[in-house]
Write a structure and sequence with these properties.
This protein is mainly β. Helix content is about 10%, strand content about 55%. The chain contains four helices and 21 strands. The strands form two sheets. The chain has a 14-stranded antiparallel β-barrel. The protein has a two-stranded antiparallel sheet with strand order 9-12. Strand 6 and strand 7 form a beta hairpin. The chain is elongated, with a radius of gyration of 26 Å.
């Protein structure tokens, strides 16, 4: 009969649609993984030591609100910060999120009264995430995101001075330092609403990546009548593969037709990544591979992390605040002494060490008229946020302050749709509080990102992926 034929066609269409989405995710994952192991995800001298520059976690809507998300509990958002939020996944639904991001880094430094600066641009896939229900009040989330990035190019010239008792017999020496690589996080988590309005979540996190750090020392000898050159090249490769874990909770304190108030908390276990280190030294084209301890950089560690958040929602407004504490110093008490920066009377060297960090995140979202059928821009969501904290390393005990402001907009694909396109901007600064006095680099960056949230369920666009149609 026609009804039976229609039912069979709908079931086949539903299965084909789901298969297409799963194939799309499978195809994107290798590209995303390749992007996260690219060498152009950061450009900062502060990534010379340790694990590198930390990436702000969360999908683009959350990053556009300053990075808040510990207490965010929304049907249309994959929450990468708290696995307890997966329990909100509606039955017969599927949520997929991915995005790309471009960055511009601008570094400046004043040396002997002269202003020097460098700039660099990057562009990569930012994250891939999906979420779907396993059972009633039980959901699963899977994501692939960048965790930290390393990227730097630096040079120091030691000038020749005939009065120097040592270097006067050696000549001018040029030192070049460069590094690249990153650490990527894959997270698989489940969230369960244990009882009404209270959910818990557990997540397994897998970290992998490669970080390469190289240095070159080139000497121009001035002994005798002819100039002779000699060089030393050192190379260290850190290969990372490690599992960690995270737990989270969310409590909906207020939930009615007009407003909702949610509190959330997470704990990350952290730990030493214990990378496999491969080192080599080349002296005047004579190569020898040596086994030695890691004496050139801080340990590659993940800190224990505590985060607390609150999120308030109405039909028009959403306001969030997070506090995040990372115990970097507790995981690593070591330090490393830098080489010389600056020149002349502005020469400096520093002891670099990990330090515990605290970060405050604030964000807001405004949707003028979610159900406005006449005015398209009233259905868009407008976001803004602010983030303030400090870098996870100190220089002779001095902390580097860092902050960022964010804005963004979410555009629904059609009326009452959860699927949408998100655009976000971020501007941040680091080191301006002490850089001038210590002859360190002042860093500022600008990020532009585009994200896509795709939601499938019975009721939206009649995309019945998991629903078997019934006819009377």
């Amino acid at each position: 009969s026609f009804a039976d034929w229609t039912e069979s066609w709908n079931i086949m269409y539903s299965k084909n649609t789901l298969v297409k989405w799963l194939i799309a995710v499978a195809m994107l994952l290798p590209f995303a993984a390749g992007a996260q192991t690219s060498s152009v995800n950061a450009f900062s001298p502060y990534t010379m030591y340790g694990i590198g520059e930390m990436n702000t976690p969360g999908t683009l809507p959350m990053r556009s609100m300053g990075g808040v998300g510990v207490a965010v509990r929304k049907v249309g958002d994959v929450n990468l910060l708290n696995p307890a939020s997966y329990s909100i996944a509606p039955q017969k639904s599927f949520l997929f999120d991915f995005g790309v991001e471009g960055q511009n880094f601008y570094n400046s430094q004043r040396v002997t009264g002269e202003e020097k600066h460098t700039a660099y641009n990057t562009f990569n896939i930012r994250d891939v995430a999906l979420q779907f229900p396993l059972a009633k009040k039980l959901g699963l989330g899977l994501s692939l995101t960048p965790y930290s990035s390393v990227g730097y190019r630096m040079r120091y010239d030691h000038p020749f001075s005939s009065d120097d008792p040592v270097w006067g017999n050696v000549g001018a020496v040029q030192y070049n330092y460069q590094g690249e690589g990153d650490v990527t996080e894959v997270k698989l988590g489940i969230g369960w609403e244990v009882f009404k309005n209270f959910s818990i979540g557990l997540a397994a996190q897998y970290y992998w990546g490669d970080i390469d750090r190289d240095f070159t020392s080139t000497t121009a000898s001035i002994t005798g009548s002819d100039t002779a050159y000699s060089s030393i090249v050192g190379s260290d490769n850190y290969s990372i593969s490690s599992f960690k874990g995270q737990i989270g909770v969310q409590w909906v304190a207020v939930a009615n037709q007009k407003r909702a108030l949610t509190f959330g908390a997470t704990f990350d276990f952290g730990g030493d990544l214990r990378p496999r280190v491969t080192s080599s030294i080349t002296i005047d084209n004579m190569t020898s591979t040596v086994v030695r301890g890691d004496t050139t950089t801080l340990k590659l560690v993940l800190p224990r992390q505590y985060a607390f958040g609150v999120y308030y929602q109405t039909s028009k407004w959403a306001l969030g605040a997070d506090y995040e504490y990372r115990n970097w110093g507790g995981r690593n008490k070591g330090s490393v002494h830098t080489g010389v920066t600056g020149s002349g009377n502005d020469k400096h060297s520093y002891t670099v060490a990990y330090t515990n960090t605290s970060t405050i995140k604030l964000g807001a979202e405004f949707t003028p008229g979610r159900y406005d059928v006449r005015h398209f821009f009233n259905r868009c969501s407008y976001r803004a946020g602010f983030r303030y904290g400090s870098f996870n390393q100190t220089f002779d005990g001095h902390r580097l302050g860092e902050w960022a402001v964010t804005v963004g907009v979410g555009v629904p694909v059609q009326f009452l749709a959860i699927s949408g396109v998100n655009v976000g901007f971020e501007y941040g600064r680091r080191g301006y509080n002490i850089a001038e006095n210590l002859c360190l680099v002042r860093q500022q960056y600008f990020k532009f990102a585009i994200g896509f949230t795709l939601f499938g369920a019975g009721g939206e666009n009649k995309d019945y992926w998991f629903l078997r149609p019934k006819y009377d």
